[in-house]
């Protein structure tokens, strides 16, 4: 089985298989993709295939216009959302979508997740945005394509940078996350789930809990991501 | 040990063994059955046997009138409920009953589970019905038989189709689910538990959370189950 | 290592080792004992020994007056409570004490656990009693001995039978459970934890949730424990 | 690879590896250190290294003035907090920092954890303190160093002894725990997480739950830690 996409499929496969291990999906609820910018294609999980049955060769290669380039199976039903984001956000290398419990519960609440602590600020400086459900007209149209548009619109309206905030909740649906590669996108899904759970518990313990103050937001974000960052190892 | 029901017993056994693996039962709390429509019998877990001790040959074969056709052990105490449903709902192939934590908690609350998101709409378009507890007269009578009647009455009163909504909560008791086969019935129990958990969390985060709007309910259900469904692989 | 208590120690050891497997204890939080009525002694876990280090030969043999009969280690700090119960309740064969999360949380709330559903009624027909904290004088006295008295007093005041209700919460402390043998005592601790969790969730979903009605309480308890019981296998 | 710190690194490594096993960390969220008082150095986890990749030789040796004594990797970004505590609290042998779910949620609520039961009193007699966030000036300065100062100030203001209360919450951040060695510091993090979870659940079940009364606090603490302690084995 010769293919010029073996490495891309492997990276996509491994990132997908992280999801059940991390407790982020049951059955077929979720999908991860990995892009190859030079070839302008991305690898994505086939639709409706249980993770326990997934093999690297099942991964489907698709271009930014949703055309299957290689693969015998039908790609994820969310493929058009992935394609839309890859087309518009040139610097992302991977995308992850799950129905993880706490992130979905916030999405079903149609509420942004407030930044309550340093666990959140270690990853970005904003409340995690929750995009409002799209209009009935758009739903009836090219739904998954418009989900990509919905994400872009939400980031535009809230004046967010996709390079800083690598996660969003789609109202009444669930989370999408992304990053420099598929592995980082999955990492962000796991982090989002934990942030969502902690924020939920915080409001149960103290309904009047205050947002993290700006000085701490900046301090924690900068020590990990700023110019003088000193978190982690050199070159990591 | 010759038997014309070996395959049926095996399918029933394997579906039962999924329950502890999926975290849906402790000890003996639950049972799955699988029907053979041609022979008009179903296979069901023996009563009160811990899952860790269960073997395929322990599975009991019963007809629609609750008579044991094959097997040395006493069938599940809920056998009459299974028989009733198989008799009245010709298109189901498997039934599952558990005492899973979140589904039971909604049942104990005597509340339908509102449809809050696409995770729910991917499986059906209605609130998950909770049947009110039966009258004292019926409880004192043929209780497990009448539990089947209770389920049918609830679907009739709420104008639901058992082919679309493959799950119900029995008030103060717990969930029953079904499907084209035993494996699908178990799948539905796992999905119901997740939906129940997410709906609980949603109401904790936002007590005024709104039901999913109709356009999204239809979109998600149709893309997976409608005529032009494009979720999953061809023929799956 | 000759001993006339090898079998008793083994039964006690195995019941203790169930606790971490069932998620009911962390570190050293809990203890199980098993009685031999003929010899009028019981076997109990040594105090403060982590479960991962526990071996059958570490189990200590104690009589009903708290005297160590065999064993090199100090018995559980709760030994006097076990001894007291064995002395006063002739028909029990095992006792289990844990600090399991949900049972402790109800104990810290100083509230009985209401009987909300059939999962509860399958095991007994009463709210799970929570004994109020003992007086300062008794605490300063023979505390663990008086904990036994506290349990008896609570059952007496609430007119409960220890043969039916095999579990109690000690206010601000945690659960004690018992049964015909040590294994059943552990089973009851696991069941109590699940009942406690479901009752907590039920009240979160519906703060006005009603107790299970009497007809259902009796039906479920009787079908499992009554004269005409048909749950489980003959002779089990 | 010769080193005079092999044993210290090994102890630090093993304590760190307990964190993912105990469910207290995901990815790189947390760090444990172990001190050698004679050599006046401590061993600490490298910054940003996933636990699954951690090896004993990666552990970094640092002195009380934050200077790396041995090791190729950058030490934890929280190193200065550890150094500060080792310098000021002569009797501690290990320190642990995590972002465990329930402890962080209380920290994000900026609330002390009330002492509601004996599980808590078995470990100390006080509410678990939550230090208020530091001033913007201090955050902008030597943040991790000042986190140590923040901890000392909180203990001073609340008149607490670090030898009795071996845990604190940093407001909006998360828990630090310590003990006679690194293993005990990790033990305290696990215990704190359980206490935090039980206190949360207690307030959900009974918002008016009362603190444990003083006689029980003293009784449980003294039987485990007092002069006449009888919990555990001699010399343990």
Automatic annotation (TrEMBL), chains A, B, C, D:
Highest taxon of source: Bacteria
**Similarity field:** Belongs to the aldolase class II family. AraD/FucA subfamily.
User: According to its UniProt record, which reaction does this protein catalyse?
Assistant: L-ribulose 5-phosphate = D-xylulose 5-phosphate
Q: Which cofactor does it need?
A: Zn(2+)
Q: Which UniProt keywords apply?
A: Metal-binding, Zinc
**Listed EC numbers:** 5.1.3.4
Please state what the protein is called: L-ribulose-5-phosphate 4-epimerase
The record's SMART domains line, in alphabetical order, gives: Aldolase_II (SM01007)
């Amino acid at each position: 089985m010769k293919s010029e996409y073996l490495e891309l499929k492997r990276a996509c496969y491994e990132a997908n298989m992280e999801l059940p291990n991390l407790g982020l999906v049951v059955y077929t609820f979720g999908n991860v993709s990995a892009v190859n910018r030079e070839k302008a294609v991305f690898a994505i999980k086939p639709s409706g295939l249980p993770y326990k049955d997934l093999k690297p060769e099942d991964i489907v290669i698709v271009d930014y216009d949703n055309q299957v380039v290689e693969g015998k199976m039908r790609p994820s039903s969310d493929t058009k959302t992935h394609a839309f984001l890859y087309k518009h956000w040139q610097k992302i290398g991977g995308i992850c979508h799950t129905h993880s419990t706490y992130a979905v519960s916030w999405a079903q609440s149609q509420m942004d997740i407030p930044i309550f602590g340093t666990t959140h600020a270690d990853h970005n400086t904003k409340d995690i945005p929750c995009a409002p459900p799209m209009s009935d007209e758009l739903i009836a149209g090219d739904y998954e394509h418009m989900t990509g548009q919905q994400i872009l619109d939400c980031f535009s309206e809230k004046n967010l940078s996709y390079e800083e905030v690598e996660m969003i909740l789609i109202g009444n649906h669930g989370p999408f996350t992304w990053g420099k590669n598929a592995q980082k996108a999955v990492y962000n899904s796991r982090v989002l789930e934990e942030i969502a759970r902690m924020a939920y518990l915080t409001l149960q313990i103290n309904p009047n809990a205050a947002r993290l103050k700006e000085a701490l937001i900046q301090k924690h974000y900068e020590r990990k991501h700023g110019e003088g960052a000193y978190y982690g190892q050199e070159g990591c």
